[in-house]
Amino acid sequence: GQQLNQSPQSMFIQEGEDVSMNCTSSSIFNTWLWYKQDPGEGPVLLIALYKAGELTSNGRLTAQFGITRKDSFLNISASIPSDVGIYFCAGLLPSGTYKYIFGTGTRLKVLA
Amino acid sequence: NAGVTQTPKFQVLKTGQSMTLQCAQDMNHNSMYWYRQDPGMGLRLIYYSASEGTTDKGEVPNGYNVSRLNKREFSLRLESAAPSQTSVYFCASSAFKGVLNTEAFFGQGTRLTVV
Protein backbone atom coordinates (compact mmCIF):
# COMPACT_ATOMS: atom_id res chain seq x y z
CA GLY A 1 0.00 0.00 0.00
CA GLN A 2 0.88 3.68 0.05
CA GLN A 3 3.60 4.70 2.46
CA LEU A 4 5.04 7.90 3.78
CA ASN A 5 8.69 7.98 4.77
CA GLN A 6 9.07 10.14 7.84
CA SER A 7 12.44 11.14 9.25
CA PRO A 8 14.08 11.17 11.60
CA GLN A 9 12.49 8.31 13.53
CA SER A 10 13.51 9.86 16.83
CA MET A 11 15.57 12.73 18.12
CA PHE A 12 16.88 14.08 21.37
CA ILE A 13 17.41 17.82 21.51
CA GLN A 14 18.27 20.43 24.08
CA GLU A 15 15.60 22.85 25.23
CA GLY A 16 15.75 26.00 23.10
CA GLU A 17 17.01 24.25 19.98
CA ASP A 18 15.16 24.24 16.68
CA VAL A 19 13.81 20.96 15.30
CA SER A 20 13.20 19.86 11.71
CA MET A 21 11.46 16.77 10.42
CA ASN A 22 10.09 15.75 7.06
CA CYS A 23 7.91 13.36 5.14
CA THR A 24 8.43 12.12 1.62
CA SER A 25 6.35 9.98 -0.68
CA SER A 26 6.39 8.48 -4.14
CA SER A 27 2.79 9.70 -4.57
CA ILE A 28 1.34 13.14 -5.04
CA PHE A 29 -0.89 14.48 -2.28
CA ASN A 30 -3.52 17.21 -2.30
CA THR A 31 -3.30 17.89 1.41
CA TRP A 32 -0.60 17.48 4.01
CA LEU A 33 -1.41 17.34 7.71
CA TRP A 34 0.84 17.37 10.75
CA TYR A 35 -0.26 15.86 14.07
CA LYS A 36 1.20 15.54 17.55
CA GLN A 37 0.41 12.63 19.82
CA ASP A 38 1.02 12.71 23.55
CA PRO A 39 1.29 9.43 25.51
CA GLY A 40 -2.09 7.80 25.98
CA GLU A 41 -3.87 10.32 23.77
CA GLY A 42 -5.12 10.51 20.22
CA PRO A 43 -3.31 12.54 17.55
CA VAL A 44 -4.07 16.26 17.65
CA LEU A 45 -3.94 18.34 14.48
CA LEU A 46 -1.18 20.96 14.41
CA ILE A 47 -1.13 22.30 10.87
CA ALA A 48 -2.97 21.64 7.61
CA LEU A 49 -1.52 22.49 4.18
CA TYR A 50 -3.58 22.62 0.99
CA LYS A 51 -1.43 24.04 -1.81
CA ALA A 52 1.98 23.21 -3.23
CA GLY A 53 4.55 25.66 -1.88
CA GLU A 54 2.30 26.77 0.98
CA LEU A 55 4.09 27.79 4.17
CA THR A 56 1.93 27.89 7.30
CA SER A 57 2.76 28.73 10.91
CA ASN A 58 1.07 27.89 14.18
CA GLY A 59 2.96 29.57 17.01
CA ARG A 60 6.47 28.12 17.09
CA LEU A 61 5.56 25.54 14.45
CA THR A 62 6.03 26.10 10.73
CA ALA A 63 5.16 23.59 8.02
CA GLN A 64 5.60 23.63 4.28
CA PHE A 65 3.88 21.79 1.44
CA GLY A 66 6.64 20.78 -0.98
CA ILE A 67 6.39 22.13 -4.50
CA THR A 68 6.56 18.63 -5.98
CA ARG A 69 3.53 17.74 -3.78
CA LYS A 70 5.44 14.65 -2.69
CA ASP A 71 6.91 16.00 0.50
CA SER A 72 6.32 18.20 3.52
CA PHE A 73 8.43 19.67 6.30
CA LEU A 74 7.74 20.64 9.91
CA ASN A 75 9.96 22.94 11.93
CA ILE A 76 9.67 23.69 15.63
CA SER A 77 11.56 26.71 16.86
CA ALA A 78 12.97 27.19 20.37
CA SER A 79 11.78 23.81 21.65
CA ILE A 80 10.38 23.47 25.17
CA PRO A 81 9.83 20.37 27.33
CA SER A 82 6.12 20.12 26.43
CA ASP A 83 7.08 19.60 22.78
CA VAL A 84 7.89 16.00 23.74
CA GLY A 85 5.73 13.52 21.88
CA ILE A 86 5.33 11.77 18.56
CA TYR A 87 4.80 13.86 15.44
CA PHE A 88 2.99 12.34 12.49
CA CYS A 89 2.61 13.55 8.97
CA ALA A 90 -0.40 12.51 6.91
CA GLY A 91 -1.20 12.97 3.26
CA LEU A 92 -4.55 12.96 1.51
CA LEU A 93 -4.49 11.43 -1.95
CA PRO A 94 -5.93 13.41 -4.86
CA SER A 95 -9.60 14.19 -5.12
CA GLY A 96 -11.95 11.23 -5.30
CA THR A 97 -10.36 9.30 -2.47
CA TYR A 98 -11.01 9.64 1.23
CA LYS A 99 -7.96 7.97 2.67
CA TYR A 100 -5.29 9.61 4.76
CA ILE A 101 -1.88 7.96 4.59
CA PHE A 102 0.22 8.36 7.73
CA GLY A 103 3.94 8.41 8.30
CA THR A 104 5.47 6.21 10.99
CA GLY A 105 6.15 9.17 13.27
CA THR A 106 9.06 11.14 14.70
CA ARG A 107 9.55 10.69 18.43
CA LEU A 108 10.84 13.90 19.95
CA LYS A 109 12.51 14.12 23.34
CA VAL A 110 13.56 17.46 24.75
CA LEU A 111 16.30 17.61 27.34
CA ALA A 112 15.87 20.45 29.78
CA ASN B 1 -17.10 20.40 22.80
CA ALA B 2 -16.82 16.60 22.61
CA GLY B 3 -15.50 16.11 19.04
CA VAL B 4 -14.87 12.38 18.50
CA THR B 5 -15.79 10.08 21.39
CA GLN B 6 -14.70 6.44 21.60
CA THR B 7 -15.85 3.78 24.01
CA PRO B 8 -14.52 1.85 25.78
CA LYS B 9 -11.11 3.35 26.56
CA PHE B 10 -9.62 0.03 27.67
CA GLN B 11 -10.60 -3.58 27.02
CA VAL B 12 -9.12 -7.01 27.62
CA LEU B 13 -10.52 -9.91 25.60
CA LYS B 14 -9.85 -13.59 25.50
CA THR B 15 -8.96 -15.16 22.18
CA GLY B 16 -12.15 -15.94 20.28
CA GLN B 17 -14.35 -13.42 22.08
CA SER B 18 -16.18 -10.76 20.15
CA MET B 19 -16.71 -7.08 20.86
CA THR B 20 -17.75 -3.82 19.26
CA LEU B 21 -15.85 -0.57 19.55
CA GLN B 22 -18.09 2.47 19.45
CA CYS B 23 -17.35 5.86 17.93
CA ALA B 24 -19.48 8.99 17.72
CA GLN B 25 -18.73 12.47 16.41
CA ASP B 26 -20.70 15.65 16.97
CA MET B 27 -19.08 17.80 14.27
CA ASN B 28 -21.56 16.89 11.51
CA HIS B 29 -18.72 15.30 9.52
CA ASN B 30 -19.47 13.14 6.52
CA SER B 31 -16.50 10.80 6.63
CA MET B 32 -15.38 8.51 9.44
CA TYR B 33 -12.41 6.19 9.84
CA TRP B 34 -11.00 3.42 11.98
CA TYR B 35 -7.24 3.12 12.41
CA ARG B 36 -5.04 0.84 14.44
CA GLN B 37 -1.72 1.92 15.89
CA ASP B 38 1.07 -0.53 16.65
CA PRO B 39 4.57 0.33 17.90
CA GLY B 40 6.76 1.53 15.03
CA MET B 41 3.95 1.10 12.49
CA GLY B 42 2.24 4.46 12.57
CA LEU B 43 -1.50 4.54 11.92
CA ARG B 44 -2.96 2.00 9.54
CA LEU B 45 -6.43 2.33 8.08
CA ILE B 46 -8.79 -0.56 8.83
CA TYR B 47 -12.07 0.68 7.32
CA TYR B 48 -13.55 3.99 6.40
CA SER B 49 -16.94 5.42 5.57
CA ALA B 50 -16.87 8.26 3.06
CA SER B 51 -20.47 9.14 3.80
CA GLU B 52 -23.50 7.77 5.60
CA GLY B 53 -24.52 4.47 4.03
CA THR B 54 -21.11 3.59 2.56
CA THR B 55 -18.14 1.69 3.94
CA ASP B 56 -14.89 0.59 2.32
CA LYS B 57 -11.88 -1.48 3.26
CA GLY B 58 -8.64 0.19 4.18
CA GLU B 59 -5.17 -1.26 4.40
CA VAL B 60 -5.75 -3.91 7.12
CA PRO B 61 -9.44 -4.96 7.13
CA ASN B 62 -9.09 -8.69 7.83
CA GLY B 63 -10.75 -9.79 11.07
CA TYR B 64 -12.91 -6.67 11.34
CA ASN B 65 -16.34 -5.46 10.31
CA VAL B 66 -17.84 -2.00 10.50
CA SER B 67 -21.26 -0.38 10.60
CA ARG B 68 -22.05 3.23 9.80
CA LEU B 69 -25.13 3.40 11.98
CA ASN B 70 -25.99 7.00 11.08
CA LYS B 71 -24.07 10.16 10.29
CA ARG B 72 -22.74 10.43 13.84
CA GLU B 73 -21.78 6.85 14.64
CA PHE B 74 -19.32 4.36 13.16
CA SER B 75 -18.66 1.09 14.98
CA LEU B 76 -15.90 -1.48 14.59
CA ARG B 77 -16.56 -5.14 15.38
CA LEU B 78 -14.13 -7.93 16.11
CA GLU B 79 -16.03 -11.18 15.57
CA SER B 80 -13.37 -13.53 16.94
CA ALA B 81 -10.53 -11.69 18.60
CA ALA B 82 -6.94 -12.83 18.05
CA PRO B 83 -3.75 -11.80 19.89
CA SER B 84 -2.58 -10.10 16.65
CA GLN B 85 -5.43 -7.64 17.14
CA THR B 86 -3.88 -6.31 20.34
CA SER B 87 -3.43 -2.65 19.49
CA VAL B 88 -4.64 0.87 20.08
CA TYR B 89 -7.66 1.70 17.95
CA PHE B 90 -8.48 5.23 16.86
CA CYS B 91 -11.63 6.57 15.30
CA ALA B 92 -11.45 9.74 13.24
CA SER B 93 -13.81 11.95 11.26
CA SER B 94 -13.48 14.59 8.59
CA ALA B 95 -15.70 17.01 6.71
CA PHE B 96 -16.05 17.82 3.05
CA LYS B 97 -14.64 21.13 1.83
CA GLY B 98 -15.81 21.50 -1.74
CA VAL B 99 -14.82 18.19 -3.30
CA LEU B 100 -12.02 17.51 -0.86
CA ASN B 101 -11.95 16.04 2.59
CA THR B 102 -9.74 18.10 4.77
CA GLU B 103 -8.44 17.64 8.27
CA ALA B 104 -9.19 14.45 10.20
CA PHE B 105 -9.96 14.72 13.92
CA PHE B 106 -9.24 11.83 16.23
CA GLY B 107 -10.76 10.29 19.33
CA GLN B 108 -8.67 9.40 22.35
CA GLY B 109 -8.33 5.74 21.43
CA THR B 110 -9.33 2.31 22.68
CA ARG B 111 -6.53 0.22 24.10
CA LEU B 112 -7.35 -3.42 23.35
CA THR B 113 -5.45 -6.43 24.65
CA VAL B 114 -6.30 -9.93 23.44
CA VAL B 115 -4.93 -12.71 25.63
Give the arrangement of secondary structure elements.
The complex is a heterodimer of chains A (112) and B (115).
Chain A: E1 5-7, E2 10-14, E3 19-24, E4 31-37, E5 44-49, E6 55-58, E7 61-65, E8 71-76, E9 85-92, E10 100-102, E11 106-111
Parallel strand pairs in A: 2-11
Antiparallel strand pairs in A: 1-3, 3-8, 4-5, 4-9, 6-7, 7-8, 9-10, 9-11
Chain B: E1 4-7, E2 10-13, E3 19-25, E4 31-38, E5 42-49, E6 56-57, E7 64-68, E8 74-78, E9 87-97, E10 100-106, E11 110-114
Parallel strand pairs in B: 2-11
Antiparallel strand pairs in B: 1-3, 3-8, 4-5, 4-9, 5-6, 7-8, 9-10, 9-11
| C-alpha termini separation of chain A | 39 Å
Task: State the low-pLDDT regions of chain B, or none.
Answer: none
Helix content of chain A: under 10%
Radius of gyration of chain B: 13 Å
Major sheet summary line of chain B: 7 strands, mixed
- The quaternary organization reads as heterodimer
Q: How many helical stretches of chain B?
A: 0
Describe this entry's structure for a reader.
The complex is a heterodimer of chains A (112) and B (115). With 112 residues, chain A is mostly beta strands. In chain A, 0% of the residues lie in helices and 53% in strands. Chain A has no helices and 11 strands. Chain A has strands spanning 5-7, 10-14, 19-24, 31-37, 44-49, 55-58, 61-65, 71-76, 85-92, 100-102, 106-111. In chain A, the strands form 2 sheets. In chain A, strands 2, 4, 5, 9, 10 and 11 form a 6-stranded mixed beta sheet that branches. In chain A, strands 1-3-8-7-6 form a 5-stranded antiparallel beta sheet, with no helix packed on it. In chain A, a hairpin with a 2-residue loop joins strand 6 and strand 7. Chain B is mainly β. Chain B is 0% helix and 57% strand. Chain B contains no helices and 11 strands. Chain B has strands at 4-7, 10-13, 19-25, 31-38, 42-49, 56-57, 64-68, 74-78, 87-97, 100-106, 110-114. Chain B is globular and about 40 Å long. The mean pLDDT of chain B is 92. The A-B interface holds A 1, 4, 6, 30-31, 33, 35, 40-45, 48, 50, 88, 90, 92, 95, 98-100, 102-105 and B 4, 31, 33, 35, 40-45, 48, 50, 56, 58-59, 90, 92, 94, 99-109.
